[in-house]
Amino acid sequence: MLPGSGGETRVGQIVALVRGRIERRVLLPGARLPSVRAMAETTGFSKSTVVEAYDRLAAEGVIRARPGSGFFVAAPLAPLAVADVEQAPRRDIDPVWMLRRSIEDLPGAIRAGSGTLPTDWLAGEAMRKAMRAAARGNTLPSADVSVLGYGPMRALLSRRMLEQGVEASPDQILLTESGTHSLDLVCRFLLQPGDTVLLDDPCFFNFLALLRAHRARVVAVPMTPQGPDLAAFAEVVAREKPRLYITNSAVHNPTGATLSATHAHRVLKIAEAADMLIVEDDIFCDFEHVTASRYAAFDGLDRVIRIGSFSKTATNALRCGHVALRADWVESLADLRLVTTYVGNPLGAELLAAMVTDGSYRHHMDMVRNRLARAMARVVRRLGDLGLEPWTVPACGMSLWVPLPGGLDASVLAGEALEEGIVLAPGAVFSPRGGWNDHVRLNVTQCDDPRFYAFLARMCAS
Amino acid sequence: MLPGSGGETRVGQIVALVRGRIERRVLLPGARLPSVRAMAETTGFSKSTVVEAYDRLAAEGVIRARPGSGFFVAAPLAPLAVADVEQAPRRDIDPVWMLRRSIEDLPGAIRAGSGTLPTDWLAGEAMRKAMRAAARGNTLPSADVSVLGYGPMRALLSRRMLEQGVEASPDQILLTESGTHSLDLVCRFLLQPGDTVLLDDPCFFNFLALLRAHRARVVAVPMTPQGPDLAAFAEVVAREKPRLYITNSAVHNPTGATLSATHAHRVLKIAEAADMLIVEDDIFCDFEHVTASRYAAFDGLDRVIRIGSFSKTATNALRCGHVALRADWVESLADLRLVTTYVGNPLGAELLAAMVTDGSYRHHMDMVRNRLARAMARVVRRLGDLGLEPWTVPACGMSLWVPLPGGLDASVLAGEALEEGIVLAPGAVFSPRGGWNDHVRLNVTQCDDPRFYAFLARMCAS
What we know:
Largest sheet of chain A: 8 strands, mixed
CATH superfamily of the largest domain in chain A: Type I PLP-dependent aspartate aminotransferase-like (Major domain)
Largest interface: A-B, 83 and 84 residues
Strand order of the largest sheet of chain A: 3-10-9-8-7-4-5-6
GO molecular function (chains A, B): DNA binding; DNA-binding transcription factor activity; pyridoxal phosphate binding
Number of strands of chain A: 13
Distance between the termini of chain A: 51 Å
CATH architecture of the largest domain in chain A: 3-Layer(aba) Sandwich
Structural class of chain A: alpha/beta
Family (chains A, B): In the C-terminal section; belongs to the class-I pyridoxal-phosphate-dependent aminotransferase family.
CATH class of the largest domain in chain A: Alpha Beta
Helix content of chain A: 40-55%
Protein name (chains A, B): Transcriptional regulator
Keywords (chains A, B): DNA-binding, Pyridoxal phosphate, Transcription, Transcription regulation
Order of helices and strands of chain A: HHHEEHHHEHEHEEHEHEHEEHHHEHEEH
Number of helices of chain A: 16
CATH topology of the largest domain in chain A: Aspartate Aminotransferase, domain 2
Oligomer: homodimer
InterPro entries (chains A, B): Aminotransferase_I/II_large, HTH_trans_reg/aminotransferase, PyrdxlP-dep_Trfase, PyrdxlP-dep_Trfase_major, PyrdxlP-dep_Trfase_small, Tscrpt_reg_HTH_GntR, WH-like_DNA-bd_sf, WH_DNA-bd_sf
């Protein structure tokens, strides 16, 4: 059949009508589409036909549904609406939705799926102390110092990385706005639209959202408690020739897995043979009791780019991400940061440097690690009482990756939990292939409310 | 002639050799090329042949020269090395070079071409006061509040914009890391590679650098002291169909020109007819004695996106940029910011909000405006004594756009000035077409050193 009002289906006609309006810019990006009822009246078709057409347009990423407020033309580049993963995004597994949920202030909510420490676990007093000291001084932190960012902070980071076996001189370290910003800069620097990037399955959900914004093609490798599945890793690298592999290694998000030395060595050998780069997001490193293997330590920052931040450990109020990479790339990355965000956050860098130098950050982390270890043991025990056993018992950190009892769908469970004021992180949001939906990520520091276990008990019993 | 070692020129052979190595990834991005001498020895060609080949590769953006350290393979995407303007970039007119120079700490240098106020003009005491108050409190600023950024700051910005006639509700305002970051986000949101963007000639040099990073095509319209040349504007918009026009309107950088109401109205009419968006970078607004016309005020944020920041007026230590735009775009832009940099800088936003609320920012700006007016009058008079007359006498701000006496090349002048510890901003760095090189931008707050006028006097006399 030829397209046109005669030959095209009714649904197709409405799809073509909306597409045409967008193309002629009658409907601008962000504009609200006519309501289903209005469109039905205008076109003379039934409401169900309009709904089907809108659904098709939404599935194609042309428009976006916002529950309760209707349909909207997707943003011009639609960087977040157009998923380049194997499955079309669903709201309940949309990483941007999860990211927003992790920020929204939900008074009284039990944030069992959160990715951050509770506010009262953060380094509030250390930060206030550093602020008082800075306020007493008569020099202002200034952006006009170094293109790479506050020098003393880079010197501290260089020494701290050495404790993890990572050799990076201060001149190989660029300060950024956050860990996320570091990763974004690296992707901008290294990726072209359509490039293939390898992720763990599961992985931190923002990797998925960020790679959509870069219009990269995502392929995935299954995780094991020691690192990526090596046979699958070798196979997918050979077949897909990814440009980058992005991972949390020593403290994996969401599983809490720890990279083994064997895995680190083998993955690096495969990466080397395929000339693939590795971006190691190491923002949880200060949670470790014992230093695990790291790609950056094994490789010496040759094909590994190492990202860090204090947001997860000290406070997310002082934005100071950083990235350590090959000496001959750092200036180009600094240029890119300069042109796209100007300099980093000088006050944040100075306050954090003061907190590291005066020992208050170290003291804070000692306390946090102890509290984390106790919370981890407590939550694992409480889950065990319900017959739930984590996928692996993490060596450190706050994340616990928990399989649900047979048949329970984590997205459905998360919806039910939300009605009781409990925010869960369903497994599929962490999965490049939309899998793992029989798992949830729990934050052991946010699970102590008895209502949470009561909810879980009911779910396990039903 | 066919390409190949027989038919190709010697220069062409070296070019092909280097290109091949880069394509086969023997030479990785950022890698240093063999020295001219080493390449001459390897190939058996003369050093001048190698130099010519390297120059050609540099002109094509494949490699980059770093004076004193040799030639390097351009970054993978080479976002900053590949200029899409009418002329190939030259080091002396490279905006990234200028941007770096504006940050480098050059002890004792006279920063007559700087784009910022001297450190002792900034709001140091107000910032310290706000820090003391924040350190006394027992709540930490937190990123976990709102996806758009610290609400009280957005409410303050909404009220302050209204004083300029710009109606933007707090929900139309997104906080970012900086003015530059705002512009980068907007470009990411609206531009595809190859899209055409209209700039003023001259314009803020970072617009050029940023648009290179976005691989946009730049077209330019000549400035007049009342805004863009209207006939040229209409003509270039009709011919080139730009997607965006990016400008500083009320306080133009580098010329200090003030947009007239006539120009604002006419430009908006042309933009509307062509369905072109306008990004108004209004980071200098608090320098104004009298509120000038603004695109955002005339248009009501329909096709105008308004960018602001406190970095130029209060301090660049507290990074808090913002962008005001159509209500139906703000959530998508917030998503993009969330995914690419997570949240803004909560501490910076809270401290700046405190400075605005307690009146110390207003007091600071009253003082700065008075000092600026005196400095402007003083520098205009001192230049007049040398027979130099600015292109226009700005109504406010720190920038003065000064034509040089006949025959003087601003890039050459800047090179000579640098040898005497004087940093100048040559005109061509502000020009999308590499023009205006008989002008310099002066910062009236950084010109008081007698050595600067002595230098100018010698230049004018020679």
